[in-house]
Write the structure tokens for this entry.
Amino acid sequence: MTAATLDLALADSVATEALGAAIAACAGTDGLLLFLHGNLGAGKTTLVRGYLHRLGHGGAVKSPTYTLVEPYELAGHAVYHFDLYRLGDPEELEFLGIRDYLDADAQCLVEWPERGQGVLPAPDLDLTLDYRAEGRLARLESRTARGGGVLECLRRIG
């Protein structure tokens, strides 16, 4: 599949959180593998917070930097938030039982996916957050038909 892209300017953390909520709305309850790229402080966890809040999580959302994965049971389905920043070797994901998490019905949001290269499958969506003079630029790239459907939905809701 040819990757489709969508670039969005994000003025602040509120806009970043709103994008996360919009992605969750477009994904519905179907399985989704979303890779989140960006430097430290770029807003990856902020985006995940918006995603999880849209699905009904009312509590705090922190990056699972030390635990590697934070599971959530929301809207009757599993959502897993991964942060691979401290991963020493991609093979550690096998010890974590990564294949069990990557169930076709689960939604997996993976920060620092490049640290799991060679073990992680290709994502449905790649999302990169880059600093701009004011705010951030979010670039979403679909890698599967599922990811393409989410992008089309985001375009429709503007």
Residues 102 and 108 are 7 Å apart (CA to CA). The chain has one domain: 5-157.
